Amino acid sequence: MKLYHIPSTRSVRPQWLLEEMEISYDLIRVTREMSLSSEYINLHPQGKVPVLVDEDITIFESGAICTYLADKYLDQGFAPKLESPARAYYYQWLFYAALTLEAPVEQYMFHVLPDLPEQVIPTQAKVRVTPEEAQQWFLKVCKPLNKRLENQHYLVGNRFSAADVVTGGVLLWALKLGMMKQECPVKEYLTRLMERPALKKAAGDLHQMESL
Ligand SMILES: N[C@@H](CCC(=O)N[C@@H](CS)C(=O)NCC(=O)O)C(=O)O
């Protein structure tokens, strides 16, 4: 299995899950030059990371890769079984992280990192909202998570799953950008996730994040 990766990006998410699963994999560091090559565009049509190559399967999108891995190794317990009612909530939080939680964090990032190259962030996609609006928006989308995490440690059935990896990956990014200043159940949850050895291994720069 090969994971195409750039440190401190969304490819930390599948790497974290692979580390949790103790599966051996090759980590391939994608350089800018490589991401523009036709060989790499065959793996990811936008030249982005992550990409997972598992024998004859080549898959991109961090959330999809995590979901694929959790199902492939279902016996490891990183996803509820198909027939379990918990499966519905598992889908809910996976999609919430990727579609709802990540949106304000990405918008905020455009302000914090305004000089991203045009190829990474097209100009018209930048600065749709002010940083203050993005922060307010983020606090709003954290509300359902705060409610969920008030009395439990993990999102689905109080058991760590791939939904925590995808959600935690978005929250790590928010922390790194300085968006998580207030004490709340979501921040406590992220602190708990950051104590996991698998995440420490996947995101080597956690120390920098802890000091934010
Ligand atoms: N929704 C995609 C986003 C992929 C993405 O934007 N990846 C960024 C890193 S976080 C990337 O590869 N940027 C480098 C580039 O665009 O050249 C996912 O979750 O996998």
Short description:
With 212 residues, this protein is of the alpha+beta class. The chain contains 10 helices and 4 strands. Helix 5 runs antiparallel to helix 6, helix 5 (86-112) runs parallel beside helix 7 and helix 7 crosses helix 8 (185-194).
What does this structure look like?
This protein has 212 residues and is an alpha+beta fold. The chain folds into two domains: 2-76, Glutaredoxin (3-Layer(aba) Sandwich), CATH 3.40.30; 86-202, Glutathione S-transferase Yfyf (Class Pi), Chain A, domain 2, CATH 1.20.1050. 53% of the residues lie in helices and 8% in strands. It is built from ten helices and four strands, in the order βαβααββααααααα. Strands 2-1-3-4 form a four-stranded mixed β-sheet, covered by helices on one side. A hairpin with a 2-residue loop joins β3 and β4 (57-60). The radius of gyration is 17 Å and the shape is globular. The site of glutathione has 13 residues, from α4.
What is the SS-derived class? alpha+beta
Helix content: 40-55%
Shape: globular
User: Helical element count?
Assistant: 10
**Overall domain count:** 2
What is the number of strand segments? 4
Give unreliable regions as ranges. Answer: none
For this structure, what is the CATH class of the largest domain? Mainly Alpha
CATH topology of the largest domain: Glutathione S-transferase Yfyf (Class Pi), Chain A, domain 2
**Over all CA atoms, what is the radius of gyration?**
17 Å
Strand order of the largest sheet: 2-1-3-4
